[in-house]
Amino acid sequence: MSDGSDADAIRQSAVPAPRGAELPLPPAAVPGGPHDGDIADGLEETYWSVYDGAASKATVGQILARLPRIVRQIGRLAWTADRTATLAVVVLQLASAAMTAFGLMASVAVLRELFAEGPTPDRVRAAAPQLLIVVGFLAARTLLEAGVAVAQARVTPKIRTALETEFLTLTAHVRLEVVDDADWHDEAYRANDRGLFYARQIVGQVISLAAALLGLVGTAGVLGVLHPALLPLLLLSVLPVGAAAVRTARARFHSFKRWNTLQRRVRVFSWLLLERDAAAELRSDTAQGALLEEHRRLTTRIAEEDTRLGVSSAGLTLAGRAVGGIGTGITYTALGAMLIAGWLPLAAGAGAVLAIQAAQSSLTRLVDISHLVYEHAMWVDDLLAFQERCRDLQPRRSGLPAPETVKTIALEDVSFTYPGKATPALNAISMTLHAGQTVAFVGVNGSGKSTCARLLAGLYEPQDGGTVRWDGLNVLDMDAESLQARVGCVLQDPVRFPFSALANLTVSRGTLTEADPQRALDAARASGAEQVIAGLPGRWEALLSKRFRGGQELSAGQWAKVAVARGLYKNAPVLLLDEPTASMDPRAEHAVYEAVLRDNPRPDQITVLISHRLASVVACDRIFVFNGGRITESGTHQELMDLRGEYADMFTLQADGYRTEAGEVA
């Protein structure tokens, strides 16, 4: 065994820690997750769990106070989606409730005949017509409920479709700087995942809520007709049941929120075990066993927690039913006393028992559904509020259309700061670009190159009084989308549209189904995508996604060629190339630059190239050097090399990397 000299050598050769940041030795063992206390602690609340469990915290008064507004809100959505179906739901639901009440009254009439004096066969025959009436009312109620279901089936999908269409339309068009805001992203995904989901469910829940409420009112009305003194007995019977239902519903919602949170911790390990990007390193480190052991420990704790919550919920339900049973017993005792005292005939007493049981069932349903509607309505409110916010974040829909050609684009004292950032990404920059020019933006990461390009494209708008002018016309006076349609953008990480190869080009002109064949072929040839597409089964019609049967998967370099072809196919007066060849091999990169920048210069197009590989910008007509949001140098390649400034230093540094110490090419 070696002595301590090896450890001393390691300590002496280690990189020294920064001052004030000395790190002590780590412990010999550390848990993979919390072992004590609530294993749900330590997780950030996710965007999709904001309102989970809200019903478990709300009081009965809060729920009851909010229900009318919720019903009105859902009613407005349904009325807008389909007035006929909405009206049918309301009318048929009221009629169904009436049939329930009439059926109960008819049942009392049947009991009256059965409990009358005389031979049993005579009493049964006398009750037969009333029994047929009961059957008729029940059949009518069944038909009416079927009608409600049909009308609901008509209106619910229309509400969902209308909300989803509006949601996607609004979010797809908000200004780009809004999309860069992480908080907006959370709101958008929350509205999509939860708001749209519960918007579909809540219509049926509100209908069920109305049915339970009308059923409760109907039975109360029947009892009032039988004898007014029965109404206090109804309250005595149903209030304990309602209180138990409230407590049970709250416990269930609280349990669901905890279960949801606990499952998230387990999914952390499940995702790592299933994640494709982690698969290679997981196997290389032989870490599967460690993750599985932690997964097993957590699932055991969760099972114990589930059992505890289940036992607690069962006890609460038992207690509620016991209290409710006492109330029901008192009710039936009082009802018996009324029968003995002669206040009620026996048939009316039997009918009262049926009505009280129906009322208890309706109240329990009412409580459960009220909690659901209360919580789910928060998600729908969230969706509607988000949509309203997005309406204020739309680009300009009015103004002059952007010109189809442009001779000069001038930036004058343009600044831009991203949402949530204190330091401006661009700080009072000015430049003038001319048609026929190829211009390069260079600089370190975060220097403002891409931000400036997006301002040129109309994706961002200048701030603090700066202006961007196309042939002297302020872009703020133009329709925003018409301006964006005049700029072709090719980005470093292009969208991999799961469409056909041809649609991946035509989408740049706003269509997936119509193409200019010659323009598509020319763009594919100039970008190097011609060979990529020619090698695909089906060629132009090949689907570029493994999500489809027979779909093809391209490499990053092949996608880059398709993206360049897409930008060229747009045939816009301004072409922005933002690190378009970063994933291409050197031969393909050289071919693209030769074809796009040198072989086919367009006198009517302004081409802007953003690149870290400075060899590609040497032939550009003008090079702008960005640093800290400002333009620090500009000129041709030779002018900037003669200046011996920042550009010359960067170019020399890159060039030296391709040479050996002897000056030969590596």
Automatic annotation (TrEMBL):
The keyword Transmembrane applies. It is a multi-pass membrane protein. Pfam families: ABC_tran. One of its GO terms (molecular function) is ATP binding. Keywords: ATP-binding, Membrane, Nucleotide-binding, Transmembrane, Transmembrane helix. The chain crosses the membrane at residues 85-111, 131-151, 202-223, 229-249, 330-356. InterPro entries: AAA+_ATPase, ABC1_TM_sf, ABC_transporter-like_ATP-bd, ABC_transporter-like_CS, P-loop_NTPase, Type_1_exporter. Residues 409-653 form the ABC transporter domain. It is found in: Cell membrane. This is ABC transporter ATP-binding protein/permease. It comes from Streptomyces phaeoluteigriseus.
